[in-house]
Amino acid sequence: MVVGQLMGIHRATSHLKAIDPNTKFDVQFFRYRIVSTDNFLRFIPGLPQGSLDRSTATQAALGNDASMGRLERMHCVIASRILERNDAGLGSYDFSATQKIDMELQEAAKIMPSGWWLAPNPALRTP
Predict the structure, then answer these.
(1) Angstrom distances, CA of residue 123 to CA of 114, 115, 117, 127
(2) pTM for the whole structure
(3) Distance between CA atoms of 87 and 35, rounded to whole angstroms?
(4) Which are the contacts of 100, defined by CB distance < 8 A and separation ≥ 6?
């Protein structure tokens, strides 16, 4: 995260270039992957988040992505909200925030078709 910030990827007007001019490089996607990885790595041990950036799930970003990508972006934002809620401390526990997060998770789940959530049946697997 810090190396990315030193490179300036946290700025909306970042103009990073790839060394090879033929390489396709999307700064916004790169930033999303760093923030997403940071959120999930901090989520496990309960550390505070390294960035409050939730721009990875804007309507423009969601509209240009496949279903799985949209779900991942929504999970990144929701993880950020959980980290923010948890960082507030136990004395300031806000049940309404938990309910809102739950609703966001349910809405994000609707991005994928219902059959996607079913566990695969190993009996139907062909060798």
Answers:
(1) 21, 17, 18, 11
(2) 0.73
(3) 17
(4) 81
